[in-house]
Amino acid sequence: MTLFYLPGTASLLEELDKKLLVFLRDGRTLIGYLRSIDQFANLVLHKTIERIHVRKQYGDIPRGIFVVRGDNVVLLGEIDEAKERDVDLEEVSVEQILEVQRLEAEAKQDQERQRAKALKERGLHYHLDLTQLGIPLEHVTWPRVTMTSNQWLCIRHGMACLNGAGATGGADRCSVVTVFNPKLSVPQTYRVEARSAKMNPEKPLLAVTDESSLYLYSTRTKKLLHQCRLMQGLVYWTWVSASTLGLVTRQAVFHWDLSSAPTEPTFMFALSERLRNTELVSYITDAGFKWLAVTGLFQEEKLVSGLVQLHSVSRGLLLLASRDSPRPLGKLHVAELGTPHAGALRGPLQETLEFFDPLDKFDFPVSLQVSSRQGLVFVLTKCGVVHLCDLETATPLCSHVVCPDITFAASLSHECGLLIVSRNGQVLLVEMKKAALLRRVAEVVNRPAISTRLRQTLP
């Protein structure tokens, strides 16, 4: 026997006149009879009740005829009325359940205040929970969440293709891009088919790509400013300045100036043969576009290894560096570029710091942020450990566990700290305690010269 299923929204036709439970993005639960649907999965429920659950109790609020926008539905399903009567829950009046719900909310708020106070005493500030913006937790991942600076957080969270006859690709093709300023926490949402999305590091501009084109939006007016055809073979792109995109193909690196009407991308340098066979994950430059670096990952001896190609615009290929140790060690390498003597790189100043939680052998660095003004390097690991090092000498200064969950994205904050996104959707601000850091550097690390310099540069 062959089973036949209607595609997409049409499958809801089989649920007409049935009693359904509908769970919404804002956390509400509705129960009612489905009377009508359209091609966008908008629902009309009849004899609707809003059911509120608090622990082992529940109460029902009559809502009558209720129209639900399809975008707001998280899940729905038919209710078995026979089994519904056997549920081990106590039904109470509307007044009682609302009072219990209020007390529950107050208890949670008090718990959050105590938690925020404890975090603040450690220099941590709890900013936001991304799930409160309606972002599915399973989409709070790399590379769906991007931070090109501390001004903007960009999340590409997919939605099911409910209205696309013949649409393919699932969540990656039918996407919602949410952009917000972590300090203001005012989100903006764009309904676009996006394979990737990144905010401009300085300007209120959002760049979005699909399979063939790049779109540039103004987040102030929400208007489309530019639409450009992407070059073939593009595998990685990012903002390298407020007006320039860096485009990386399997063969070469290009810069695309978008300061006015977009022109043709400018060739910068060709990738090495070894780098072409890796998964490209990063491209960075200095402010003057004199030093350019591409990073790729590849599997070697059952381990994930990295390969960096460093390019000087004036001198060409300078360095092709990869892991040189058979053990999976995470080390900090600091090298000075552009030194006048011999025209070559000075060797690593320090390479003994291992970025691993001794209790988790699978911990590894996920973000490296450099504060040139303070002369500090922040290294964040997957297990939520922040290592602070001196930039000039690469001396380890301190290490702290700042988040008990997996972390994967970070950016320097205005206050010389880190803005961190964790896998459970939390956005944390990590700030340094100046007095405690200076005392530790001078007394524990025993580097009074570094302590004196930090006293002058730290805010």
UniProtKB/TrEMBL annotation:
BP terms from Gene Ontology: deadenylation-dependent decapping of nuclear-transcribed mRNA; intracellular protein transport; mRNA processing; RNA splicing; vesicle-mediated transport
GO molecular-function terms, A-Z: mRNA binding; structural molecule activity
RNA-binding is among the record's keywords: yes
Pfam families, per database record: LSM
Cell compartment(s), UniProt: Cytoplasm, P-body
Domain Sm residue range list: 7-82
UniProt xrefs under CDD domains: LSm1
Gene Ontology annotations for the cellular component aspect, listed alphabetically: clathrin coat of coated pit; clathrin coat of trans-Golgi network vesicle; Lsm1-7-Pat1 complex; P-body; ribonucleoprotein complex
Regions crossing the membrane: none
Domain of life: Eukaryota
PROSITE patterns found in the cross-reference section: SM
Keywords recorded for this protein, A-Z: Cytoplasm, mRNA processing, mRNA splicing, Phosphoprotein, Ribonucleoprotein, RNA-binding
Protein purpose: Plays a role in the degradation of histone mRNAs, the only eukaryotic mRNAs that are not polyadenylated. Probably also part of an LSm subunits-containing complex involved in the general process of mRNA degradation.
Name this polypeptide is given: U6 snRNA-associated Sm-like protein LSm1
Organism this protein belongs to: Ixodes scapularis
